[in-house]
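Internal tracking record. Fields below are filled automatically when a chain is submitted to the structure queue. Please do not edit lines marked as system-generated. If the sequence contains nonstandard residues, flag them in the REMARKS field before resubmitting.
Queue: standard
Priority: normal
Entity type: single polypeptide chain
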Amino acid sequence: MKHFIQKFAFSLFFLLATFSLFCQSNKPYAKNINITLENQELILTWKNPEQDSNIKNILIYNDKNPILFTNQLSKKNLVKILDKKQTSYTISDINHFSPYFAVIYQLKDDSVFDILIITENTTIYNETLANKINSLFAVEIVKKPEEVETVTFEEGKIRKTPLPTVDLIQSSSDKSKTNNTFDMEIVPYIFQEDKSSTAMGIAYELNLIVSKYFPTEDFGSAATELKALLENKHEQEETSRIYFYLGECYFFTENYVEALSCFFQSEKAYPAISKKWQQYVINSFNY
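SYSTEM-GENERATED OUTPUT FOLLOWS
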C-alpha cells in the first residue's frame, strides 16, 4: 500500500510538473483525450485551450500502434483536418481505424506543436473499449500483439477486422532504458563538435565531461560539471548543448521533470534532437 501511495504521489507530481512546463512553452496542445464506442461508431473527444488565437487547424492522426513518437505523425497517418473549434471526431466505419489517435494543433505559421502526452492528446490501450469492439464481431477478438493468433475464416468469408492494440509503454529499471514496445536501446547522444579531443573553447570542455563520465555512466558527476559551465555566459548554441547533455544526465538518473526542462531549453538551437529526447522522457516514465 505504501509503495502504491508513493508511486501515485510521484505520478501526480510528474504530470503536474510536465504540464507546467508545457504551459510555459506558450504552445497549445489538446487535453483530456477520450475515445468511446456509441452506436457502432468511435467517438473521439478532447478539450481545446481557452485561448486558441494561435491555432489554425486541428490535425487528427491514427496509427496501429500507440502514437508515442513524432515520426508517427506523417501524411500517411493523417486522417482528418478539422476546424480549430472542433472538440470531437466521429468514425463510422471502425473496421478501417485503430483505437490509437492523436490530436495535434497546426498553428497559424503552419508549424505544429508535436509533443505527445499520453492520455492528454494521444490515446492508449483501453480494455473496456476493446471489449466493446469485440462484441461487434463474432470471429476474432482484438488482442495485444503478443497474444495474436492466426485465425482461419470459413471459405468465401472475408472481412476487415480492428487492428490489434497494445499496453502502455513502461520504462526499464536498467540504465540502458530499453523501450519495451519498440525494443530500442536509448544511449547518450553526443554532438559531432564535442567528439574531438582537439576541439577548442566550450567544445573542448564538453568533450572532457562527456568522454570522462558518459562511458562509465557517472551521470551525477557529469551533471555537476555541466551546471558549473552554465554559470558562465556562452553563445546560444553552446548553452543549448550544455542543457542538452544535462538533460541526458537527468534522464539516465530518472529525474524526468528536470530532464524535460533541459530539453526544452536546448530546443531553440537543436529542435529535432531535443524533441526526440523530450519524447524519450515522456515515454520512459513508468505509469
